[in-house]
Amino acid sequence: MIREQNGKGDNDFARIKNKKAEEMEERRRLMEKSVEKKRQLRQQHIERKETLEAEKLQRAETATDRKVRQLKRRQRLAEELARRKHIELQESLKSRKIKSASARGMSDEVFEKIQAEVMEKKTQDQQIQTSSPWDVSEDFELKQQQKKLSYQRDLQNQLIDNRRRLREKEEEKHRERKIMEEVGETLHEENSEAEKRKTEVATLLQAEKDAFLKARQFWKEKRREVLRQEHDEIARIIAKREALQKREAEGKIDTQAAKDIMLEKMMSKLMEEERKRVEREEICRELYLAEKEHERASEAIKEASRKKHTARELLQEMARTQMAVAERKAKERAIDAAFTKYLADEQKKQEEKERLKERTRREKVAQYGDELREIIEQNKMRRSKDTAQTKGEANVGHDEKCKIKCHSEPENLEKLTSQVVKNDLCV
Asked: Which domain of life is it from (predicted)?
């Protein structure tokens, strides 16, 4: 009887032992499944992190390319501004050279004009020798007409220069307006690109936020499912354990109960550690996303401030260029006014000299006419005296003597006239 009871007890112990082994195997499979799920979640997290890093690298490359394009565009604009400034400086130097050359040319023309007038006066004096001294008024009117024509030509040249300067001013205004339009288009494009980048960053942040929320919701659901399964498993194990304890109450299997309690504590500890680890990973991910969002916002703010600074520098450069152009125009206008005043003063001086010379010449001609009349009167008086002295002579001798005197009198008159003309030319 005792032997049968011992055999029955051994069978029960073996059965319980097998059941415990099966339970341990089941727990091991569950733990492996949980570990596999955690490994899959970790792998998904790693893949997500790698994807985010790749997207970040791509955005950085895109931003770098955009910055390089912006720098190249700014460099092209700076080169274009420098080229246009160089062209404007060359045009201003060329215009100054042309003005100086025209001034020298005009001075040469004035000298040639004066020389031509001197030669013309000499020709007129030679004509006076063979013409009557009372034809001076016609020559004076001719000279006045020539002066009027010369003055009219000078006015026409000044009008042409003024029209040319107006055309140059219009062209310069057109160039400045074109530069301002290009700068405005560049600023508009940069602002559009900045707004587009802001929209893209906001879209990416929203997409990352949505993905993060979806992943967190998925993880929470999976976690709840795992916890529910573990809770059910634990409840089942506890129920089995209670049933086993009831069955083994008589056999007093305290060792197995202690092992179960220890195993339960270990399982609780492992579950708590896993929960804490998952919470730490979640917190680290949230901190990482918050830090990245802050960095993107800081970069966007820095980019906006840098663009504002660049736009301010471009506007200051345009203002300095306009001031330099205005100063150059003011200097050119002052030079033109001074040169015009100089020409007018020279014209007045030349006219005054010509009037003085003309008045002197008229006085000399009048004096010459008076002297000729005096000589003629003296010759008449001398002839009357000679006639009175030779009144008693024969008529033939008287006629011959009168002829000789009449022939000698024109010769003396011609000699006196040539001497007066030579003195006038010397003066």
From this structure: Eukaryota
